[in-house]
């Protein structure tokens, strides 16, 4: 039989292969090595970048950063698995120069250097901008929920606590009633010792829940996670309610590079537009022109302030629809606003003057009486009055809605949403392995850095990247 045969393991080689020969010249791992070596890690604030004159010598943070970038590029987040890879993976042996830190050292690096990793992400965007990969002509913003390391079962709300306390009271009263009934009869089939133990357990559990509820009330919170206090219970599309964080991405429309990212505890995107846009603008050195987002970012105050900074904002309005009865009904767009009269003109030609304001909803309210005498009432309202609302920042909302053209919304979806799909694949199917907001943010930043690096390699190629980093 003529099969290919390997070299006998016992054979001695005259010239052992060099570690340099472990990876080819056009391998992406060489880009990781060159990029990290180009950074000033001390200036970025990495711990142990500067060593003491005494004590055990630490691992260089650059080596551990290289290991993590490689790990997330290959969808590996387990520190114990990374420890093994340092002994058996030729690419890692080349990248780490045969260093093999233990899993605890690897885990501590990720936990302790979150802010520094974010600065590395910012520095890579500077590199991409110089390479012409980022322009700022159009940046799409969106958010997605990532699960925390904690279990969903550990999340509790005030309402759930009150319900559990009510059920405990019922159980306790039931036991007490049975004890009282048995004492009146003088004979009992109950085991008093076991009943007393059960009551003691229920009372202790009740006290714990009462303390938990009291703490929530005192801190003004409606919920908390018992094992990971930073994580929040929030809605997540098809998955329903999850315990986790709301990740915000600002992605450049040129090559889908994440210009800015943030891991937040906000359950919705309603108040994220201005802070994310401002941070994106700083990352691009004020070379930002247009921002687009979905209707979840439709906040008049946020949009108005963003527009006042000179940016074009494209966001569809998130408005209620007149759905009374059946058939076609007049919507707000069918009413004309008259600025001089500060009133709306209805399709029948009647004026709806300003009536009052709602500071809570930031709305002006307009209405007129006598709609029952109008021949068009059947297409407008069943009541005698038709109300129209106008937001304090109505002009800003209308301008943003007009800028949110169908073409831009399609481009928004194609720009920002694939980044979350890739990041969730990189980051353990969208679930963090680190506990707490700070550590989870560090993990998310490493995922974003790995994603951006691979996108740049796919566009420029390894050799072009190496030439620019030289």
TrEMBL record:
Ranges where the Transposase InsH N-terminal domain occurs: 18-111
Coiled coil: 158-219
Domain Transposase DDE stretches: 346-455
Entries under InterPro entries matching the protein: IS1182_transpos, Tnp_DDE_dom, Transposase_InsH_N
Keyword presence, Coiled coil: yes
Keywords of the record: Coiled coil
Superkingdom of source: Bacteria
Keyword hit for Coiled coil: yes
The protein's name: IS1182 family transposase
Species this protein is from: Marinobacter azerbaijanicus
């Amino acid at each position: 039989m003529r099969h290919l045969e390997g070299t006998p393991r016992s054979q001695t080689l005259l010239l052992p292969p060099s570690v340099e020969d472990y990876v080819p010249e056009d391998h992406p791992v060489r880009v990781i090595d060159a990029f990290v070596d180009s950074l000033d890690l001390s200036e970025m604030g990495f711990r142990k970048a500067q060593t003491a004159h005494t004590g055990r010598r630490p691992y260089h943070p650059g080596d551990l950063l290289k290991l993590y970038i490689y790990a997330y590029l290959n969808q590996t987040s387990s520190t114990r698995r990374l420890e093994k890879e340092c002994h058996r993976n030729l690419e890692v042996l080349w990248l780490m120069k045969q260093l093999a830190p233990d899993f605890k050292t690897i885990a501590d690096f990720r936990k302790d250097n979150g802010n520094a990793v974010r600065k590395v992400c910012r520095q890579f965007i500077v590199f991409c901008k110089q390479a012409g990969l980022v322009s700022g002509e159009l940046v799409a913003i969106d958010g997605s929920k990532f699960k925390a390391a904690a279990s969903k079962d550990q999340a509790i709300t005030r309402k759930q606590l009150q319900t559990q306390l009510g059920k405990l009271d019922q159980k306790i009263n039931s036991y007490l009633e049975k004890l009282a009934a048995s004492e009146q009869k003088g004979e009992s089939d109950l085991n008093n010792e076991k009943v007393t133990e059960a009551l003691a357990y229920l009372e202790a559990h009740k006290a714990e829940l009462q303390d938990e509820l009291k703490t929530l009330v005192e801190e003004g919170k409606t919920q908390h996670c018992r094992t990971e206090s930073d994580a929040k219970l929030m809605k997540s599309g098809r998955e329903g309610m999850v315990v986790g964080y709301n990740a915000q991405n600002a992605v450049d429309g040129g090559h889908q590079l994440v210009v800015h990212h943030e891991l937040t505890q906000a359950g919705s995107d309603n108040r994220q537009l201005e802070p994310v846009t401002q941070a994106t603008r700083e990352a691009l050195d004020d070379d930002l022109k247009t921002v687009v987002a979905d209707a979840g970012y439709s906040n008049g105050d946020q949009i108005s302030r963003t527009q006042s900074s000179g940016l074009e904002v494209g966001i569809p309005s998130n408005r209620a629809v007149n759905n009374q009865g059946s058939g076609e009904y007049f919507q707000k767009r069918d009413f004309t606003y008259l600025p001089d009269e500060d009133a709306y003109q209805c399709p029948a030609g009647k004026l709806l003057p300003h009536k009052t304001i709602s500071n809570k909803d930031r709305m002006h309210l307009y209405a007129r009486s006598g709609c029952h005498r109008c021949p068009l009432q059947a297409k407008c309202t069943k009541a005698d009055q038709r109300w129209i609302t106008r937001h304090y920042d109505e002009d800003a909302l209308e301008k943003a809605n007009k800028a949110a053209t169908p073409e831009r919304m399609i481009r928004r979806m194609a720009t920002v949403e694939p980044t979350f799909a890739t990041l969730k694949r990189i980051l353990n199917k969208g679930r963090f392995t680190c506990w707490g907001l700070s550590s989870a943010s560090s993990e998310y930043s490493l995922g974003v850095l790995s994603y951006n690096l691979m996108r740049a390699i796919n566009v420029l190629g390894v050799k072009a990247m190496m030439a620019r980093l030289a």
